[in-house]
Automatic annotation (TrEMBL), chain A:
Record's GO cellular component terms: extrinsic component of mitochondrial inner membrane
CDD domains: AdoMet_MTases
Places the protein is found: Mitochondrion inner membrane
GO BP field: methylation
Keyword Coiled coil: no
Organism, scientific name: Elliptochloris bilobata
EC number assigned by the record: 2.1.1.64, 2.1.1.-, 2.1.1.114
Protein name from the UniProt record: Ubiquinone biosynthesis O-methyltransferase, mitochondrial
Assembly and oligomerization: Component of a multi-subunit COQ enzyme complex.
Transmembrane segments: none
Automatic annotation (TrEMBL), chain B:
Required co-factors: FAD
Keyword Flavoprotein included in the entry's annotation: yes
FAD-binding domain sequence ranges: 2-362
Signal peptide: 1-18
Gene3D superfamilies named among the record's database cross-references: FAD/NAD(P)-binding domain (3.50.50.60)
One annotated Gene Ontology cellular component of this protein: mitochondrion
Species: Elliptochloris bilobata
Protein name: FAD-binding domain-containing protein
Keywords: FAD, Flavoprotein, Monooxygenase, Oxidoreductase, Signal
Gene Ontology molecular function: FAD binding; monooxygenase activity; oxidoreductase activity, acting on paired donors, with incorporation or reduction of molecular oxygen
Amino acid sequence: MLSRSAAGPSIVDREVTKFGDVAAEWWDPRGSFKPLHALNPVRVAFIRDALCEGFGREAARVAPLAGLSILDVGCGGGILAEALARLGANVTGADASADSIAVARAHAAGDPSLHVTYRDATAEQLVAEGAQYDAVVASEVIEHVADAAAFMRALGALAWPGGMVAVSTLARTPRSYALAIIGAEYIISLVPRGTHDWSRFINPEELTMLGNEAGLALDRMAGMSYNPLTGRWRRSDDTGTD
Amino acid sequence: MVGAAFAALLAANPLTAALRVLMLDRAPPPEALGPLPPVPGLRVSTLTPASVRLIERAGAWRDVAPPHSAAFKTMQVWDSSGSGCVRYSAAEAGEPVMGHVAENDLLQAALLRQLRQPGAGVELLWPAQLEGLHLPKPFSELQRDGGGAAPGALAELGLSGGRRLRARLVVGADGPRSHVRQLADLRTFGWAYGQRGLVATVRPEVANTCAWQRFLPHGPLALLPVRNGYANIVWTTTPRHAAELEAASPEAFADAVNEALQGAPTPARNFFLPAAAAESEFRRPPLVRPASGRGPKSFPLALRASGRYVRSRLALIGDAAHAVHPLAGQGVNLGLADAGALADALAYAVTTGQDVGDEGMLEGAYEAPRQAANGAMLAALDGLKRVFEPQSGLLSGLRGLGLDALNAVPGAKQRIVRYAMGV
């Protein structure tokens, strides 16, 4: 399966194709993206708590994000976008892979009460349109882009002044190398082989610096640790991995 | 009852109260909660403190608490071969009571009362017959067939009369011969024990707050306190013996119970073991008299469990997932624990934006922990059953020694008491 290459300075064509090839598997609970499904509740809880605190809302209630507009950049099959929509947010999911967007649309269509707007577009294209949101989320994406600084600037431009940007990524530290590359990809087949390129991982300091350069102030940072025995992720204060 | 408990637990939690719940039942509901008949019904459940806490959470305990049910503070288990006796007390597990015995009809009515409260958000529909259930196909089949419903599609239900419904999650709480389980094509495993469980109501001659269980050559006989000073008999025996007991006059049945519980020999102290504390020593159970009302009734004993409890958009709870023989009266307790775990899983899904019918969520937050817990109890009950079934001299001597050893070793005994009480 070939994916069309998307225009945009921060995108690596090869990376887009890589995900396009496995797009059909996004929602296979036992497939390549199984660890992403396992990780999802933990990252959703982190984003929910950060947004609720930032926008002065109570997190432990039904639909805590009601009325907030959120852009999920690099949404893939919509695993995170659907969850944020169920928390009440008006979610737009954008991805440079048309195959992924097609899968995301088809999946969300299965549930009539689920409303997510999907865009086959890059962050730069949305900036060019002048789109802006209360919050911008890019989860496990920045390690796949060619120009991380340009990407961060685009994310910052997509949030209203006073809005929030949440970026999560597998960090480039010796421990994450063991967990995410060797452990994750080759030993326990966490994510499809070749989805992550070690040199593209970013460490927490680099992420903070890129944010500062893009005019974003660090609000909070958290790590997630993966237990290969139970297949579960949990929040940890150690930012060595994610 | 387990289904009603599940719906009441959802309604009681602000996080899940907004979920739209429809409860279907083939049978019309039991009469609304009214004055209880003077003689308790035959079908009762022994509720552990853990189950009582769940019924409290569901808001229904005040309608079930004594005097509507009976509490017991001690339990005595002994062997008819003459050696082996163990007495448990609630104090050993740090609880005020060991358990409560409540009629199943009362539990059901108390839970339904909660569902009928304005604002409970539960629609009740009966009589309703489920004729068709269409669940989203597993991802692998979707790939192979190249199309059909998307993996995120809802479950579709067809009812008799032509009504069609769609749901994010279908919960099968429809008992050991679960129709939902059959429609979902989930396989089960199990075996029959070739024995019957007989239940009856009798009247002890003196006030009783102990649960008595004696192992007889054909199986155990339990005498449990129920409300209004009565006692419930649960007697596991051969089909032929069960038929004789069912045909017996009330007086002859009471005589049979007295003979079985009082008959010689009395357990002797085992001198190979340290002496048990005074409160752990053997006591004689009360004599019983016939009670008016329905005579004894028996049913076959079998174990049946579903290999899987969940599929995409489906979860089985209670006897639909695992039916155990009533040796230790654990069926309802396991079912209520399932209902509590599934209600908690849905609350977790709501707070993290997960689909309440997502197979991965159901597997991790409901099926895995409950299968481990139920499997342990099923194995324990099945093992207990097999140890106590044959009446050979060697085995009965061993189990007599085992019971005495249990009685004399406080740590081991306490662990078993706590396990049996679900705390």
